């Protein structure tokens, strides 16, 4: 469980959070994504909080984008945020920081340049998407938006690198179909988020398979160890969580991603990423 970074969060709250089993604090710059209106405008006011988080061993989870401005758009918001990441790491070198859902080659390089207390999550859908897949398709719209083909390539290579700085973070968002398509009158802003959770493991495997087919990765690079590390071990170790005894078995058959999930009401109808596409079948043990 995490807290939302907000002026009400004080060093004293961090101490209480640690005692209550809270693992981290999520930071959203104000206005950059769904439900971020109460997000951060200036990080300086939170320096005492970060110092206490450093002492208590809590993780700072960063949505790494700058708010919109005359010279900042969705295409460069992440890259423009990276100096903030580097500055926070310099000021609080023992604070564990995760740059969540990276989308750019620049972000990958920035995280690589930091010490072992800085890591990054990569989503399953960003291993597939570029900005061309987002334009005109609200179901693929998320924040940060998918970027250029060379950025996607950098993400795939990082995911298969074996570097413990990079691990899966699905950022799966089951927004109702109506919220993804402008609301009931089709005029509201599209909710930012892609729903991948039921198929996240299969999606990562398929992204690697596509990369092998295209010659981006070799079969030798995608080993069982690489998969286990990216899907499970690296993230667990960064958070300091105990080892899981569960296993995943890839079965020798395929299935189709369902076209939608619903409990019967329009407000709960959700369309998964790559709906109606063929996917692998797995079994959780």
From TrEMBL:
Its EC number is 3.5.2.3. One of its GO terms (molecular function) is dihydroorotase activity. Keywords: Hydrolase, Metal-binding, Pyrimidine biosynthesis, Zinc. It comes from the Eukaryota. It is an enzyme of class 3 (hydrolase). PROSITE patterns: DIHYDROOROTASE_2. GO terms for biological process: 'de novo' pyrimidine nucleobase biosynthetic process; 'de novo' UMP biosynthetic process. One of its GO terms (cellular component) is cytoplasm. Pathway: Pyrimidine metabolism; UMP biosynthesis via de novo pathway; (S)-dihydroorotate from bicarbonate: step 3/3. Residues 14-102 form the Amidohydrolase-related domain. Belongs to the metallo-dependent hydrolases superfamily. DHOase family. Class II DHOase subfamily. This is dihydroorotase. It comes from Phaeomoniella chlamydospora. The lineage of its organism: Eukaryota, Fungi, Dikarya, Ascomycota, Pezizomycotina.
